[in-house]
Amino acid sequence: MTKQTTISLIAAMSENRAIGLNNALPWEPIAADWDNLKKVTKGKKMIMGRKSYDNPHRIWSEVGNYVITRQADYVADEGFEVVSSLEEAFEKCKSDDEVFVLGGEEIFRLSIPYADKIYLTLVHETFEGDAFFPEFDESEFTITERKEFSAGQNTPYDISILTYVRK
Ligand SMILES: NC(=O)c1ccc[n+]([C@@H]2O[C@H](COP(=O)([O-])OP(=O)(O)OC[C@H]3O[C@@H](n4cnc5c(N)ncnc54)[C@H](OP(=O)(O)O)[C@@H]3O)[C@@H](O)[C@H]2O)c1
């Protein structure tokens, strides 16, 4: 990984930090969040944990995807490359300008120390979850952008889309 590669995390979490339930999102589809994700990740490679990959509603990039697993014999679908660590995925993206870590909880936990940017959508509701976005030290970041969407504006819930940039 060269210094030029920006490591970005992108996630959506509820007020109680839930990001997943039963290997799916805890909420109804949020078009405004999906539109934002497609826009900011366009043309960038994606890195994800095996559980997030192994999901009928998985997200992927047209330019390259890395699936992190401890299973030595794991075979992923075409368009996805299997790696054994986050660092191995970063190494493979070292000539890219930006790479996105898509989660889930385990992979976010490992990647926050490396994050240059966090694109975080706050869903202003409480949801049951079994996967959560880890607490992180927000004082290490500056919020450079905040977009607000009210329920009914392409979203069933009030949401805020924040961009955190490491100081
Ligand atoms: N709201 C959001 O923004 C968002 C985004 C993404 C995912 N999600 C949700 O998050 C949930 C999944 O999160 P999760 O934490 O359960 O799973 P995950 O982070 O997607 O994947 C976990 C898997 O990654 C592999 N792994 C973890 N640490 C590793 C390490 N140090 N070295 C090598 N491999 C490692 C292991 O795969 P093996 O077991 O194969 O070894 C582990 O089971 C789902 O509910 C999903 O819908 C939400």
Broad structural category:
alpha/beta
Name the bound molecules.
NADP nicotinamide-adenine-dinucleotide phosphate
H-E order:
EEHEHEEHEHEEEE
The low-confidence runs, each spanning 5 or more residues with pLDDT under 50, are none
- C-alpha geometry: globular
CATH topology (level 3) name: Dihydrofolate Reductase, subunit A
CATH superfamily: Dihydrofolate Reductase, subunit A
Q: Kindly give the count of domains.
A: 1
The major β-sheet equals: 8 strands, mixed
Q: How helix-rich are the residues, as a percent range? A: 10-25%
* Strand percentage: 25-35%
Short summary:
It comes from Emticicia aquatilis. By secondary structure, this protein is α/β, with parallel strands linked by helices.
What does it look like?
- With about 170 residues, the protein is α/β, with parallel strands linked by helices.
- The chain has a single domain (about 5-165), classed as Dihydrofolate Reductase, subunit A (3-Layer(aba) Sandwich), CATH 3.40.430.10.
- Helix content is about 15%, strand content about 35%.
- The protein has helices at about 30-40, 50-55, 85-90, 105-110; strands at about 5-15, 20, 45-50, 65-70, 80-85, 100-105, 115-125, 130, 140-150, 160-165.
- The strands form two sheets. An eight-stranded mixed sheet has the order 5-4-3-6-1-7-10-9, with helices on both faces. It has a two-stranded antiparallel ribbon with strand order 2-8.
- The radius of gyration is 15 Å and the shape is globular.
- The relative contact order is 0.27.
- Pathway: Cofactor biosynthesis; tetrahydrofolate biosynthesis; 5,6,7,8-tetrahydrofolate from 7,8-dihydrofolate: step 1/1.
- It catalyses: (6S)-5,6,7,8-tetrahydrofolate + NADP(+) = 7,8-dihydrofolate + NADPH + H(+).
- Belongs to the dihydrofolate reductase family.
